[in-house]
Amino acid sequence: MNILKSKWLSKIILSLIAIISFTALLSINTYAADDSLNRVKQRKELIVVTSPDYPPYEFQVNHKGKDKIVGMDMDVVKKIADDLHVKLVIKSMNFDSLLVAIETGKADMAIGGINPTKERRQSVDFSDIYYNGGQSFLINKSDVNKIKSVKDLKNQKIGAQTGTLQYDLAKKKIPGANVKGMDKSTDLVLALKTHKIDALGIEKPSAEAYVKNDKTMAMIPSGYKLSTNEVGAAIAMKKGSTSLVNATNKTIAKIKKQNLTEKYLASAGKYMKVNTVNTSMTHYWSYFVKGIKYTVLISLVSSLFGVVLGVALALMRFSKSKILRGISISYTEFIRGTPLMVQVMFVYFGIGVIVNIPALLSGIIAVSLNSGAYVAEIIRGGINSVAKGQTEAAASLGLSKTDLMRFVILPQAFKNIWPALGNEFISLIKESSIVSIIGVTDLIYQTNIVRADTYRGVMPIFVAMVIYFIVTFALTRLLNYYEGKMKHA
């Protein structure tokens, strides 16, 4: 038995190595010649990814009932698209996924106040720097007498967005600093306001935006002395995209010559005033409604496919075929042994190298595959819970194995596992929130947008909690109703 397990383990490891190697090879730029600019023109679309939670660079507004991503960066890429005579297409996702999207061909450009550091230049190409606003620190206004300059941050808790220049600078340049990284700038601002951190490293324009819109906050200069080739904001493109980089730099040169960035910042400021006129949660009700629609859609579809896949895997587990049993065991163990977030990113970015799968469909596929593994184990437990006497009685009536499983075993198994299956459905609603990392506009994604737009950290989270509770409570009651009917059936 141990030898058999070892063989299967070896096969699994070899298969994983083959998949990773194949994906890595596909990720390599295999174009004989650079055709990045031609691809954009032939497609007649410039696809740009951004994380719209970083005002005034990019953020979302609710203007006259319509959602729109605006900001200085959006004006920059709009100018680039106009110069190329193509349509601008904006895709949203987490900041730490932007460069991955470029490397895997999900977009032509990534923009979002991205600093062209040496480390990042190893993975992607960058345009010329189009804006350099400088570095600052956000602090609580109540600490202005305690923290007057960067020297006062020695041995303090400093927050910065994970993977950013601000994070690296705080690590290197502030003695004894305890640097805490988070994926979202909105989470960092909340951490600052609740005194989980003493200061937040952030670009000066964003710091100014928060100070203007939140009276409890203040800012101090960073005092950093930095080389000009890695500070400021630049646009990221796939390695080898020389023609697209050159075309982009021509537009950036025009922007600098005409001093358009100041005009773009003024425009962003006007949009920010639209957001802060009314920061009540009722004003943003459409955001939450849109988020819950996507959350429910993903959960329902994934639950259906998860049950179908789970039944198939459970039946394969009871098969006499060693191959089918091996596939079922390997799949279940592998899926349960890896995080859902990694699976979502692999489906969207990894498989996306071969087939360009939209973000929503990628999220549904990943959540369905994940749910199937857990449902398979629940169903297997349910089948094992059916008394052996039922099998013997069915055999005495001359039922075939297929009819035995269909009419005797599975109905009783589902009756036994209904509470566990219901718990899996409820968990799925909450766990599906992970799809927000690839830009699916579920409830968590929309909550973060509202937090960024309104400069309110806690209230949007509270609203999201209430919505999740209402949905899961209603589903629990519905499942309990059907469980009661089963008991009396």
From TrEMBL:
Domain ABC transmembrane type-1 residue range list: 292-479
Membrane topology of the entry: Multi-pass membrane protein
Coiled coil, from the record: none
UniProtKB keywords: Amino-acid transport, Cell membrane, Membrane, Transmembrane, Transmembrane helix, Transport
Keyword Transmembrane found: yes
UniProt subcellular location: Cell membrane
One annotated GO biological process: amino acid transport
A GO CC term assigned to this protein in UniProt: ATP-binding cassette (ABC) transporter complex
Domain of life: Bacteria
SUPFAM superfamilies assigned: MetI-like, Periplasmic binding protein-like II
Sequence intervals crossing the membrane: 294-315, 346-367, 458-479
Pfam families assigned: BPD_transp_1 (PF00528), SBP_bac_3 (PF00497)
MF annotations from Gene Ontology: transmembrane transporter activity
InterPro entries: AA_ABC_transptr_permease_3TM, ArtM/GltK/GlnP/TcyL/YhdX-like, MetI-like, MetI-like_sf, Solute-binding_3/MltF_N
Family: Belongs to the binding-protein-dependent transport system permease family. HisMQ subfamily.
Protein name per the record: ABC transporter permease
